[in-house]
Automatic annotation (TrEMBL):
Keywords: Aminoacyl-tRNA synthetase, ATP-binding, Cytoplasm, Ligase, Nucleotide-binding, Protein biosynthesis. The keyword Iron-sulfur does not apply. InterPro entries: aa-tRNA-synt_IIb, aa-tRNA-synth_II, aa-tRNA-synth_II/BPL/LPL, Anticodon-bd, Anticodon-bd_dom_sf, Pro-tRNA-ligase_IIa, Pro-tRNA-synth_IIa_bac-type, Pro-tRNA-Synthase_IIa_type1. It comes from the Bacteria. The lineage of its organism: Bacteria, Bacillati, Bacillota, Bacilli, Lactobacillales. The keyword Aminoacyl-tRNA synthetase applies. Residues 38-464 form the Aminoacyl-transfer RNA synthetases class-II family profile domain. Belongs to the class-II aminoacyl-tRNA synthetase family. ProS type 1 subfamily. It is found in: Cytoplasm. Its EC number is 6.1.1.15. It catalyses: tRNA(Pro) + L-proline + ATP = L-prolyl-tRNA(Pro) + AMP + diphosphate. Consists of three domains: the N-terminal catalytic domain, the editing domain and the C-terminal anticodon-binding domain. This is Proline--tRNA ligase.
Length: 568
């Protein structure tokens, strides 16, 4: 392919709002252009990379008998109303009406559509298991699109769905999907972790996330420095030391005027935060709940929602604290709390002895507060956000934190959607049962950014060989020299014959500009055709290496193959 015929609008200056390295480099290299906030055009080079990613996905899906299909992007709102997500998904839904004023949405995901599709098709256990997937553009009205392709309003996604008659088949497909994902990300050259994740509004009780390590990542990954344990910060847990046991001391009040924060309480009373019970007033599914946690921890709302199987959680307002909890903001505590208020406590509080808590009175705290004697708890559970350095839950090593980009997610949905849509099958005994589902997603366009975040240097991108828009970049130093153009044509033909994709820079540009743009594009193999073209000698250089070597045309393919053994 002649570079003069490809639209590659490179930039010398990067827009000031491009924060992520991947966003900056893809703009500079003419891979993408923003059309509106969170909406991008994929120009020829980016599209070729996307097609390579999609090819890898399709190849790995075929190995596990997953079958490709394609659903509509415009969906009737009634499907989402039937599942309940039309109301709960929030403002991220793009909503529209047709000329007859019927409600539709632009599909952000397709659980409802797929379930509706198969409900009258997979009506016997004999027709399952089945795995269907699609690669399609999705739409989510993000409040703050940012980081280029990492958080957009329109994006390309792989989404797969499994339908089984029993949990054994679900587990088998779930494991096959995890292994297929690993192969996909390995082939994409990614440094990633498989972590325990939260199913969120997707439903289900089994979830794993795949996260690419990157400083720009919006997710915090918690992992053990001595084992394979890894989890999203929202799901991570740890082993905490038992609280020291003491003899119960008498409960008594302490005057603490204006002391409403843990740090202030620590300073005034000269105590460790581990001795303090932090009381958090929450409204969960419109019911008042007090969450208790040790003073050095924070309540993890995702864990709390999962423990209580709740849909909605929010902090109580000062007015609600006063009127419903009958307490004072900053001075809340579990002692003498109204029996109408449910109390759930973190495990860190269970054996806390002679603790300090709010007294539910203005400017007053209590000391020597003890569970059972002074207050009761409806449920103890892990509802805390872990801290770096704590003991890993598998008792191997300590917890470390890093940042990551979510690039994939697999869920065991169970029967959440099949029950909503009455998608039943007849089992071996002729009895109707709801179809058991799994859901599997990969952010295809997001992968583009994640790969660039990990594979770049000061000069530009460095694409893995299997993903590169072109694998070889032939640069004609002087297009006025016929022998250089003739050799370039011969080299292109040879490389193409041996399976390489080739871009030929035939432009009338200065060599320095061509070399700089070649680095920016990140094409793995650069072949420079210059002064020794008459002798059939070219220079070969890999994108991730500094040295170029001279080689004859006849030895070029063998030389490239040898060099590529050490590429990435």
């Amino acid at each position: 392919m002649k570079q003069s015929q490809v639209m590659i609008p490179t930039l010398k200056e990067v827009p000031s709002d491009a924060e992520a390295v991947s966003h900056q480099l893809m703009l500079r290299a003419g891979f993408i252009r923003q059309i509106s906030a969170g909406v991008y055009a994929y120009l020829p080079l980016a599209l070729r990379v996307l097609q390579n990613i999609e090819r890898i996905v399709r190849e790995e899906m075929e190995k596990i008998d997953a079958v490709e299909t394609l659903m509509p992007a415009i969906l009737p709102a009634e499907l989402w109303q039937q599942s309940g997500r039309y109301a709960t998904y929030g403002d991220n839904l793009f909503k529209l009406k047709d000329r007859h004023q019927r409600d539709f949405i632009l599909g952000p995901t397709h659980e409802e559509t797929m379930t509706y599709l198969i409900k009258d098709v997979l009506n016997s256990y004999k027709t399952m298991p089945k795995v269907l997937y699609q690669i399609q553009t999705k739409y989510r009205d993000e409040d703050r699109p940012r980081y280029g392709l990492l958080r957009g309003r329109e994006f390309i996604m792989y989404d797969g769905y499994s339908f089984t008659s029993n949990t054994d088949d679900l587990d088998k497909i779930f494991d096959q999907m995890e292994q297929a994902y690993r192969k996909i990300y390995d082939r994409c050259g990614l440094d990633y972790r498989v972590i325990l994740g939260d199913s969120g509004d997707m439903g289900g009780n089994g979830s794993k996330e795949f996260s690419a390590i990157a400083e720009i990542g919006e997710d915090t990954i918690v992992y053990s420095d001595m084992s394979d344990y890894a989890a999203n910060i929202e799901m991570a847990t740890s082993i905490i030391a038992d609280n020291p046991t003491e003899k119960f001391a008498p409960l008594q009040s302490i005057s603490t005027p204006g002391v409403t924060a843990i740090d202030s309480l620590v300073e005034q009373l000269q105590v460790e935060p581990q001795r303090i019970i932090k009381s958090v007033a929450l409204i969960i599914d419109e019911k008042p709940v007090m969450a208790l946690i040790r003073g050095d921890y924070d309540v993890n709302e995702v864990k709390l929602k999962n423990v209580l199987h709740a849909d909605d959680i929010r902090p109580a307002t000062d007015e609600e604290i006063s009127q419903i909890f009958k307490s004072a903001p900053g001075f809340m505590g579990p002692v003498n709390l109204s029996s109408d208020i449910s109390i759930i406590a973190d495990l860190s509080v269970r054996n806390l002895c002679n603790a300090i808590s709010g007294a539910n009175q203005q400017d007053t705290h209590l000391e020597n507060v003890n569970f059972e004697r002074d207050y009761q708890v409806e449920q103890f559970a892990d509802i805390r956000t872990v801290k770096m350095g704590e003991l890993s839950p598998d008792n191997k090593g300590t917890l470390q934190f890093t940042r990551g980009i979510e690039i994939g997610h697999v869920f065991k949905l169970g029967t959440k959607y099949s029950q909503s849509f009455q998608a039943d099958f007849l089992d071996e005994n002729g009895h109707p049962q709801p179809i058991i589902m799994g859901c599997y997603g990969i952010g295809i366009s997001r992968l583009l950014s994640a790969i660039v975040e990990q594979h770049n240097d000061q000069d530009g991108m460095i694409w893995p060989l299997e993903l590169a828009p072109y694998q070889a970049h032939i640069i004609i130093v002087n297009t006025k020299k016929q022998e250089q153009k003739d050799l370039a044509a011969a080299v292109e033909q040879t490389l193409t014959h041996h399976g390489f994709s080739v871009l030929v820079d035939d432009r009338k540009q200065r060599p320095g500009v061509k070399f700089a743009e070649s680095d920016l594009f990140g094409i793995p193999v650069r072949i420079i055709i210059g002064k020794k073209a008459a002798d059939d000698i070219v220079e070969v250089k890999l994108r991730n290496q500094d040295e170029a070597i001279e080689v004859s045309q006849t030895d070029l393919v063998d030389t490239i193959n040898i060099l590529l053994k050490n590429y990435m």
